[in-house]
Amino acid sequence: MTIKAQATLRTARLELVPMGHEHRKFTMQLDMDPEVMRMVAFGRPFTEDEAIQVHTWLMGCATSVPGFGTWAGFAKGEFVGWWILAPIPTKESSEEFMTDRTEYGFRVSPKFWGQGYAKEGGGRWFAMPSRNWV
């Protein structure tokens, strides 16, 4: 079940839905794909356990601080990728967050590379009125 801490967003081609447990197979496919991961993290695909940990982290970011979140993107019902705007915990506490920094990221399936989806997805939620602090 999806925890709807953030809104579903739409662009001309994308529906960005709040990340849910039902999206785990999609995030794991991207995290375990050598082509996707060669430029991410350690430059290698994640193991199944690592991919599960990433999905768990994505889910936590979706609900930890209002105004932040993680979205799964779909074009005509087909999974395109995911987008995240995450708070960064302070060194002192994982429950307190920096006020001057955030983390932005995304992963897009190779099938959709070079078509502008990464920019379109990120641009949609950066344009939200509540983002005036970013």
TrEMBL record:
Query: Which residues are in the N-acetyltransferase domain?
Result: 13-122
What Pfam families does the annotation carry? Acetyltransf_3
Alphabetized Gene3D superfamilies for the sequence = 3.40.630.30
The protein's matches in InterPro entries, at most eight in alphabetical order, are given as:
Acyl_CoA_acyltransferase, GNAT_dom, N-acetyltransferase
Example of a GO MF term: acyltransferase activity, transferring groups other than amino-acyl groups
Q: What is this protein called?
A: N-acetyltransferase domain-containing protein
Source lineage: Eukaryota, Fungi, Dikarya, Ascomycota, Pezizomycotina
